[in-house]
Amino acid sequence: MALSAKDINENTRWQDLTDGLQIYEPATSKNFLTGEWRTNTPVLDQEKCRNCLLCVPYCPDSSIPVKNGKRLDFDYDHCKGCGICVKACPFGAISMKEGK
User: Fold this and answer.
1) pLDDT, tens digit, for every residue of 40-98?
2) Is 3.30.70.20 the CATH number for 5-98?
3) Is 93 exposed, middle or buried (0-12, 13-18, 19+ CB in 10 A)?
4) Where is the 4Fe-4S ferredoxin-type domain (predicted)?
5) How far is residue 13 CA from its own chain's centroid?
């Protein structure tokens, strides 16, 4: 069983990390927890968020889930921490913190 990105730290053995760059069939990318690569983490300020969803199409990893027209918290198992969402948010509701 793959570890969640929040369970990965400097003491994690390399054998326990998700294999990367090995997709042999379609629709399997959700099986690879690429969030473990992240060095910076996006943080959502719910009070500033206007739920405009402008950040969603900018995320290259589809790590901003939407349900019933509402933005949910980040999918940290797949977010690589690129910070594009920070630039896309016109309300300053997303910031980056160092680390996971």
Assistant:
1) 999 999 999 999 999 999 999 899 999 999 999 999 999 999 999 999 999 999 999 99
2) yes
3) buried
4) 40-69, 70-99
5) 22
Query: Residue 93: what pLDDT?
Result: 97
Average pLDDT of span 23-52: 82
Domain-by-domain residue ranges, the chain? 5-98
AA identity, residue 100: K
Residue 38: which of 18, 54, 23 has the closest Cα? Answer: 18
Both structure tokens of 50: 């206007």
What is the per-residue DSSP string for 5-47? GGG--TT--GGGSPP-S---STT-GGGS-GGGG-SEEEEE-TT
Written as one string, the DSSP assignment of 77-97 is TT-----HHHHH-TT--EEEE
